[in-house]
Structure formats: C-alpha cells, structure tokens
UniProtKB/TrEMBL annotation:
Gene name per UniProt: rbfA
Subcellular location: Cytoplasm
Listed InterPro entries: KH_dom-like_a/b, RbfA, RbfA_dom_sf
GO cellular component, one term: cytosol
Gene3D superfamilies from the UniProt entry: 3.30.300.20
Family: Belongs to the RbfA family.
Sorted UniProt keywords: Cytoplasm, Ribosome biogenesis
Gene Ontology BP terms: maturation of SSU-rRNA
Main location: cytoplasm
One family name in Pfam for this protein: RBFA
Physiological role: One of several proteins that assist in the late maturation steps of the functional core of the 30S ribosomal subunit. Associates with free 30S ribosomal subunits (but not with 30S subunits that are part of 70S ribosomes or polysomes). Required for efficient processing of 16S rRNA. May interact with the 5'-terminal helix region of 16S rRNA.
SUPFAM superfamilies, A to Z: Ribosome-binding factor A, RbfA
Name of this protein: Ribosome-binding factor A
C-alpha cells in the first residue's frame, strides 16, 4: 500500500475521531481532548490514536476511561465514514509531548525570573 494513501487515511481518521469526540460522544467523563496524530499500520489493520489530555490527573484518567469505552463506537463511526474493506482496530496512546513542552516552558520562565531578580 502506498505511503501517500496511508498518510491520507491517517489524516482522515485524525479529523474524524476529533469530530466524533467533539460532537458525538455523550460520556460525561470525557473532558478536553486533542487528537495529536494517528499512526496506521501498512496493512490498515491497526490505528493508534495519540491524544493529549487536559485537566487534573483525576480528570485525565476519567477522560481516558471514557474514551477507552467509546473505542467500539468510534470504530463503527469511522467505518461509516471511511470507505475501506477493512476498518482498522483502534487503540489509544496518551501523547505526553504537550505536557513536556509546558513543563519546559515553566522551567525556562522560572530561570528567567531568577536571573532578572538577582
């Protein structure tokens, strides 16, 4: 399967999962979620959805649980919207890169404050 097609499928799934989370999921546990990227295997059998979660550790865990329970629903919705013979199995992965970036920025800000205060 061509790399371009896989990239198109990944982008399509990313957009559709974002839309499904935003408008179709009714689970009150699901808080603020950003789909950062999707990785699909070359045979289109598996898709890993990378998400960034906002909120307290408890809110993040609750959101993750709600999303895990909704994976079957999301896969069914992707199947309706994506015209492929095989709909990939979906898995979630928490993308920590945004949290890491925020921590680094806070540290840099603290260093800058310390230097200007001396």
């Amino acid at each position: 399967m061509g790399q371009l097609r896989i990239e198109k499928v990944q982008e399509f799934i990313k957009q559709e999962i974002s839309q499904i989370i935003l408008t179709d999921l009714k689970d009150p546990r699901v808080g603020f979620v950003t789909v950062t990227r999707v990785e699909v295997t070359g045979d289109l059998q598996h898709a890993k959805i990378f998400i960034s979660l906002m909120g307290s550790p408890e809110q993040k865990e609750s959101t993750l649980q709600g999303l895990q329970r909704a994976l079957g629903f999301m896969r069914t919705e992707i199947g309706k919207r994506l015209r492929l013979r095989m709909i990939p199995d979906l898995a979630l992965a928490v993308d920590e890169s945004l949290d890491h970036s925020v921590r680094i920025q806070k540290l840099l800000d603290e260093i800058k404050q310390d230097e200007s205060g001396n």
